[in-house]
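Supplementary Note 3. Input sequence used for the single-chain structure prediction.
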Amino acid sequence: MAMKYMLFCLAICVSSQVCEAQNSSPFFGGKAKRESYCSRIPYDTVSTKIIVPVVIEGKTYRFILDTGAPTTISTELFQKLKPTVIRKLHITDANNAADSLSIVSLNELTLGDVTFSDVRALVAGPNIIFDCFGVDGFIGSNMLRHSIIQLNHHTKQLVLTDSKKNLTLNKKQSSSLYLDKQAGPYIWIGLANQKKVKEQVLFDTGMGALYDLSLRSLTLFEPHQVFIERAKAVGSNSFGFFGAATDTLQYRLLLPQLDINGGILTDVPVETTVDSNSRIGADLLLYGVVTIDYRNQKFYFAPFSKDPSNLMKRDFPISLMPRDGKLFVGFVWDPALEKQISQGDQILTIDGESYEQIDLCTLILNPDTFTRKEQVTIKIKNASGEVRELLITRK
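The predicted structure, written as discrete structure tokens, is reproduced below.
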């Protein structure tokens, strides 16, 4: 009953209709006002989101650190600050839905004790992420493109600096980093089963999973037999910046070995995504210290353990999808259940607790409320109004 996709995939990319070279990108405005800096910033984590304090015009706000997105502010903050509008851009979200958003210039923004000037930011419309997490925006890669950041999940500390001399780094744990037109960081990962291949993926701290594989990449890797298919189903349980994804054939897979700069993770559960790019998400921070050297285009991963981490787990045979204040079945992964439950059935109760009306923020902030269990009894209502109860167990 995986709930990770309920955490709105907020990775945003500029569509191919905007063709500026990287140096002239409308996302690239200012940089740090100081030439030399090293700031150690404590951060909070709320349901995998990394939340940092940001000061604008003397007031402290809460922002999500999202390396997969450009810096973004809420409509409410835009109305309060009244920053200069640079232009409007055609934006495509993680589900390939598109719309136009304004890009503005913030005179100054301070993270830790480092002040950035002329920070370019998107203005987002009403979005439940701002409400549920109590944040006013996102710190994105475009603001960090001249810096180096290091994230340590054990200490809950973000280091922001302009020089790698301020950090303890091991060259053997590094690889090259590619920055796209909004400075989104792309890294190389090794995938191994019977053969070993590499994939270039976006490192996206706004994504709450470890590894989401794009359907496009899955097709490319099929001849190499890298992934082991566990299940497949048609449905949807993901949201992008502009709304829900359409129903698509998706897969649950197992990756025998994931290699990130020599750090090995084994038996990695993987789910596919409609996004055009595969992504490594914030769950990587559970297994080691991550350093993104935007300045020198290097990526470092220092595992907490010298031994490979085994990620094998069992999943519930359905995934859930919230819609209009109710909860529905997004995917049915086990064909044996198809006569009892269907994609689109409404979830009425889980272990006797009513879900006929749900608070979406509660589900987003506590995605494991009931998935910690090994089995649950659910009551469902199908499209014909028929109600039935069944026991489902992790497999």
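The chain has a mean pLDDT of 88. The first strand starts at residue 12 and ends at 14.
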